[in-house]
């Protein structure tokens, strides 16, 4: 059974159609990139699969279960941990409280998250709205891990961060990969992204147009769909 199967996804914002047929699937333990230029539908695909912006047609199956009709918190409870674009934490909670409210039994505990991101341990009693952007991003990843997700989704998790912080996030991602964590990633840093992913799906104007391994991503395809 596949971990995640997305077929024929069409999603609208009011009357405006954003997705015109997105298809891709991932296996347990795979790390998959969702790629494409700005505005091509990456975030909308993620929001649709988490049912934050439900699709109008098409299907999302997670471990064989159709997610149709589920509320986002139910999807989260099935084992999908989202680090959304723009890293939202509860600003009026401390770092430790932010992590603890997300806790679900499993291998990821407060201790382990603190070992992964020692900066979070140093700042454990600080209100999260006083953290730097990079620390907030680590907290957002830490919170998602505290839910012990079967699938971790990272939407632009390194966007706008200082280079050293980006490196810490990428190091955490490769560590998670070696532990067999399934991850769906959107990120603009192609060099780092292609080092860590097993497969890529490219979106163009709300449609999936190419799927393959990073080694098959030719200059022609990069040129046509990624603008690099
Ligand atoms: N909240 C929204 N309301 C209306 N249109 C939106 C909204 N969010 C995104 N869109 C539109 O949907 C399309 C896909 O956007 P998005 O999924 O955010 O792309 P990406 O994440 O690939 O940059 C774009 O045309 C964008 O303008
Ligand atoms: Mg986006």
Summarize this, please?
One of its GO terms (molecular function) is branched-chain amino acid transmembrane transporter activity. By secondary structure, the chain is an alpha/beta fold.
Question: How is this structure best described in words?
Answer:
Helix content is 35%, strand content 26%. The protein is of the alpha/beta class and 228 residues long. The chain has one domain: 3-Layer(aba) Sandwich (Rossmann fold). The strands form two sheets. The protein has a six-stranded mixed sheet with strand order 6-7-8-3-9-10, sandwiched between helices. The protein has a four-stranded antiparallel sheet with strand order 2-1-4-5, covered by helices on one side. The model has no long low-confidence stretch (mean pLDDT 95). Bound molecules: adenosine-5'-diphosphate (ADP) and magnesium ion. Residues 42-43, 85 line the site of magnesium ion (MG).
Looking at this protein, list some descriptive labels.
alpha/beta, Rossmann fold, 9 helices, 26% strand, binds adenosine-5'-diphosphate, binds magnesium ion, AAA+_ATPase, ATP binding, ATP-binding
Topology:
Blueprint: E1 4-13, E2 16-26, E3 31-35, H1 42-49, E4 57-62, E5 65-66, H2 72-79, E6 80-83, H3 95-101, H4 110-116, H5 118-122, H6 133-146, E7 151-155, H7 163-178, E8 182-186, H8 190-196, E9 199-204, E10 207-212, H9 219-226
The structure holds adenosine-5'-diphosphate and magnesium ion.
Adenosine-5'-diphosphate (ADP) binds next to β2 and α1.
Keywords: Amino-acid transport, ATP-binding, Nucleotide-binding, Transport
Protein name: ABC transporter ATP-binding protein
GO molecular function, one term: branched-chain amino acid transmembrane transporter activity
């Amino acid at each position: 059974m596949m971990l995640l199967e997305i077929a024929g996804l069409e999603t609208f914002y009011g009357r405006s159609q954003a997705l015109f047929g997105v298809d891709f699937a991932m296996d347990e333990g795979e790390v998959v990139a969702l790629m494409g230029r700005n505005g091509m539908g990456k975030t909308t695909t993620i929001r649709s699969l988490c049912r934050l912006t439900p699709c109008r047609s098409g299907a999302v199956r997670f471990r064989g279960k159709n997610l149709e009709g589920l509320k986002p918190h139910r999807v989260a409870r099935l084992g999908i941990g989202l680090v959304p674009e723009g890293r939202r934490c509860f600003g009026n909670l401390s770092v430790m409280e932010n992590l603890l409210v997300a806790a679900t039994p499993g291998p990821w505990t407060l201790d382990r998250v603190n070992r992964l991101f020692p900066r979070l341990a140093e700042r454990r009693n600080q209100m999260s709205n006083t953290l730097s952007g990079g620390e907030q991003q680590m907290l957002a990843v830490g919170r998602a891990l505290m839910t012990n997700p079967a699938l971790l989704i990272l939407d632009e998790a390194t966007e706008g961060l200082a280079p050293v912080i980006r490196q810490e996030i990428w190091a955490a991602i490769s560590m998670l990969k070696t532990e067999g964590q399934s991850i769906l990633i959107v990120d603009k840093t192609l060099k780092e992204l292609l080092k860590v992913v097993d497969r890529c799906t490219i979106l163009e104007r709300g449609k999936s147009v190419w799927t393959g391994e990073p080694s098959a991503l030719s200059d022609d395809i990069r040129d046509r769909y990624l603008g690099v």
